[in-house]
Structures are given as C-alpha cells and as structure tokens.
Amino acid sequence: MKHFKRTFKWISLCSVLIALISCYGDGIDTKLEVETIVSNFAANGAVSVDRNGDVYVSEYGRFVDTGGSGTRVFKLDARGRILDTIQGLSGPMGTAKDSKGNLFVNNANNTINGQVLKITPTGEREVITTIDGWPSSMTIDRQDNLYISNYTVPTVHKISATGEVIEYANDPRLLGGVGIDLDSKGNVIVANFYTADIYSIDKNGEISLIANIPDIVIQNFGIGYITVINDVIFATGIAVNYVYKVTMNGKIEIIAGNGEAAQVDGLLLEASFSNPNGIAANKRTKTLYISEYTGAGGLRKIDLKPY
C-alpha cells in the first residue's frame, strides 16, 4: 500500500509538471482554444483583473483631437457578464484596483498630461496626480504601489499606497511605453508600443532589454499591452493579429491567432483576432482576457489552466 501511494504521488507530480511545461516552458498546448465571451463590445482598450477575479475593460474609443473618444470602463465577471459600467470618463486607458477596493484609472489624457483618477468603492472620485506626457497603462503590486507607463514621455512613475509620486525610471528607450506589469521579483516589465521592445526595470532603476518582437510594427502599431504569468510575458500584436508568449530570456512564440483580422473562435493557432489590444490575466486561474481595438470587437478568453 505504501509503495502504491508513493507511485501514485509520483505519477500525479509528473502530470502536474508536464502540464506546467506544456503551458509555460517549451510551448503552449495547441489543444487550448480562444473563446469570445463578449461580442460587439465597445470596450477596446486596456484590460485588468482584480484580486476577486473581476475583469475591467476600458473603452478608449478612437483618438479625436487630443484624446480618446470613449467614456466608460466596464466591470465584468469571469464569464463576461457585465456587473457595472463606470461612466463619465475621458478616453480611459489603464486600470488597477487596490486591496481596499479603490479603482485607479488613467484618464483625460490630452497628449500634454493625463490624470490618475481614484474611484472609491462608494463612487467618490479624486484626481490623485497629473503626470506630464501621456500616462497610458498601470499595474499594482501587493503593497498597493502603482506603476504607470507613459506613451509620449520616456518615464515610468510610481505612486505609493500613501500617495507619494516619484519618477521611477527615465530613459529614452521607454518612450512609447504602454503595456506594463510586474514579474515575481518585483521588476517592472514595460512594452514599447512603437518599437515592440520589451524591457525589465529592476528596483534600482536599471533597464535591460528582454526581447524585441520582430516584424510586427505597422504604422507605429507594435505591442498593444502585456501581462505576466509565472514570469512569462504575454503580449498582443495589435497590427498583425497575433498573441505572443515571451520568456524572460527572450524566447518568442506565437501562441494564438492565424494573422487574419476577424473574430473567429477555435484552437489557438486557428482562431483569429481583430486587432488584439488589451491583455490581462487572472493569475490564480491562469486565464487570459484580450480586448480588440476594432469598433465591433470583442472580449476574448484563453483558459490556460486545464493544461
């Protein structure tokens, strides 16, 4: 009996390891599928997932004059049911929710500066800071520190849980920064929308190149957004209609999409996206949520957990 238990545990452990390697090591299992959970969805911008697993998708809209035409952020459950619509915004982009239930939004960008808006659980609104340039996306750590990328100024800002605002990094390579997330060591990972470069910024502010995704920049549209699961980066190729996996040592792989601009579900490399843009992960369930920039886009889902 003891021998049987040891054998059973060993088989179980091997199964788990094989599953993890399939998803995050040597490649994504091709039996995974892309699923549309909301179709004809106006929300075409940044995506974030809070600690309860609820999904926030920004309606950036289209660039008009000096900012986005969208006015809403949608809150959805894991299945795509809309739970709340936050209205009265101006071209909202990145979002993040802290441990107290406050929602932060990059709002009212006008190419000169943009607001970091705080919305409390009771609906009260406060602009906690204004950042020069075009603050574009944000991520939050377990201590409720916000990190904010910038599209037109080569900076990353950090806002502490107590509201202190500092310039966390300043480097020419960060100009065009949109997608932003954190790895397991607390390094800030930033993707450049213009160049399709992905950088790591350590806690000393030192910047290093992780990878450049080649041949995806079309008319200055490169990487839309990124998310990190288990120190693996997932990035959207907004102009080429692919989703990429990038390891921290720079290995690049197309994991979803066939390159056609359409909204078709199915197996990862047979499914199609219509300008995939925002991407975020429920890191507990290993689920990716992807927005599409086109006006008749959708919210797409890839569930990595079964494999």
Explain what this protein looks like in three dimensions:
- There is one protein chain.
- The chain is mainly beta.
- It has a single domain, classed as TolB, C-terminal domain (Neuraminidase).
- It has one helix at residues 2-25, and strands at 33-38, 47-49, 55-59, 63-64, 67-68, 72-76, 82-86, 95-97, 103-107, 113-119, 125-132, 135-140, 146-150, 155-159, 165-170, 177-182, 188-192, 197-201, 207-212, 223-229, 232-237, 242-247, 252-256, 266-267, 276-282, 287-292, 299-303.
- The protein has a 5-stranded antiparallel beta sheet with strand order 24-1-27-26-25, with no helix packed on it.
- It is globular, with a radius of gyration of 19 Å.
How many domains in all?
1
Q: Write down how many β-strands occur, each being a DSSP E stretch of 2 or more residues.
A: 27
Q: What is the third-level CATH name, the topology?
A: Neuraminidase
Give the N-to-C terminal Cα separation. 30 Å
**For the CA atoms, what is the radius of gyration?**
19 Å
* Helical/strand content category: mainly beta
* Approximate strand percentage: over 45%
- How do the SSEs run, as a string of H and E? HEEEEEEEEEEEEEEEEEEEEEEEEEEE
Overall mean pLDDT score?
91
CATH architecture, please? 6 Propeller
**What is the molecular shape?**
globular
